Amino acid sequence: MRKLAHRLAVYLKDKSGHPASVAVLQFGIEGFLHTLVTMLVLAGVAIVTGQSRDVLFLVLGFSGLRLLTGGAHVESGLGCTLVSVTILVGSSYIPVSLWTGLLLCVLSLWLIEVYSYYLEPYQSTRPLKHKDKFKVLARIWLGLGFIFSFFESSRPFAIGLMLQALSVTPYGVRLVHSLNRLFGKGGESR
What we know:
By secondary structure, this protein is mainly α. It has one domain (2-183). It is built from 9 helices and no strands. The protein has helices at 2-16, 22-49, 52-69, 77-91, 98-115, 126-129, 131-148, 156-166, 170-183. Helix 2 (22-49) runs antiparallel to helix 3 (52-69), helix 3 runs antiparallel to helix 7 (131-148) and helix 5 (98-115) runs parallel beside helix 8 (156-166). The chain is globular and about 55 Å long. The N and C termini lie close together (11 Å). 34% of the residues are buried. Keywords: Cell membrane, Hydrolase, Membrane, Protease, Quorum sensing, Transmembrane, Transmembrane helix. One of its GO terms (molecular function) is peptidase activity. This is Accessory gene regulator B. The chain crosses the membrane at residues 20-48, 55-74, 94-115, 136-151.
């Protein structure tokens, strides 16, 4: 995937004259391609397991909050895909009652208030300038979790929120980084 991202970055740089370096373009393209592959594998597994709706709400809760709060990353593209698919599809089997959904939202809000914004050392620190704005948006996203908890079909959203909230805690960061030792970079780091 790294080679494809490099070729696309060189092509984009040559054709558009974009001011970013090839390395910067490649990094962004590689991240996009890894995300695309992960989402396609996740969708396929969700369909095969019959968990499409629950996985969709889990992914929405997780991804939306992740954009707003950061979080630890598995560095290997393959490792990221395997961990994401396993955790998100596996979590879709957890039954969530109204009160469990509300409790998960309260706990997620508390964790985000205490621990976010988390960036990996290789990530740009630009989001930190807007940390307060991101936190307000995260609270709104978490508010959706409270609303969705009242509807049985969308309660897995709260599990997605909690999984993401855990990824910004010191324990969550250590856990994700320990997975990096298991998977290594595999030649395709994010």
